Amino acid sequence: MTHPTNVGTGAGTADRGRNTHQWLALIIGAVYLLVGLAGFLVTGFDGFTEHNHDQTLLGFAVNPLHNIVHILIGILGLVMWKRDGSARTFGWILFVVYGATFVYGLIVANDPDANILNINGADNGLHIVSALAGLAIALWPRKDRTRTTR
């Protein structure tokens, strides 16, 4: 009688495929990384916390600090998507960070002195969508691993 060598070792998880929430984490991470890098084409590296709604990327206000936040979130997504648990943790990070950023944006959107991320209304909309996407990733139903296919 032969036994699979990867039982209980965590090996072979790639053979079972990825869950939907993991792919969402990967896609959101890649998009945020690309947006953060593209943001530097608009802002350059000057005016790190500048509040200037003339600096927009597809209608979203950006500044170098905002770009760095996008890059960090993107890298987290790319690093955390591969494992079920870490992808869910990434979802919770998105939910908390972008939920808080949405509230922050509501408070400071019209206050140039406090708006160090240069948030505008479009950003606020994206932030609430990102928070909800994070919640979806975190709470996505688990596959039934005992189910057999016929």
Can you walk me through this structure?
This protein is mostly helical and 150 residues long. It has one domain (17-44, 56-139). It is 57% helix and 3% strand. The chain is built from four helices and two strands, in the order αββααα. The chain has helices at 20-43, 64-80, 84-108, 121-139, and strands spanning 56-57, 60-61. Strands 1-2 form a two-stranded antiparallel sheet. Strand 1 (56-57) and strand 2 form a beta hairpin. Helix 1 packs across helix 3 (84-108) and helix 1 packs antiparallel against helix 4. It is elongated and about 50 Å long. Mean pLDDT is 86; it is low at 3-15.
Strand content: under 5%
What's the helical proportion of residues? 55-70%
What would the average pLDDT be, to the nearest integer? 86
How many β-strand runs? 2
Order of helices and strands: HEEHHH
| Integer-rounded radius of gyration | 19 Å
Q: N-to-C terminal Cα separation, in Å?
A: 24 Å
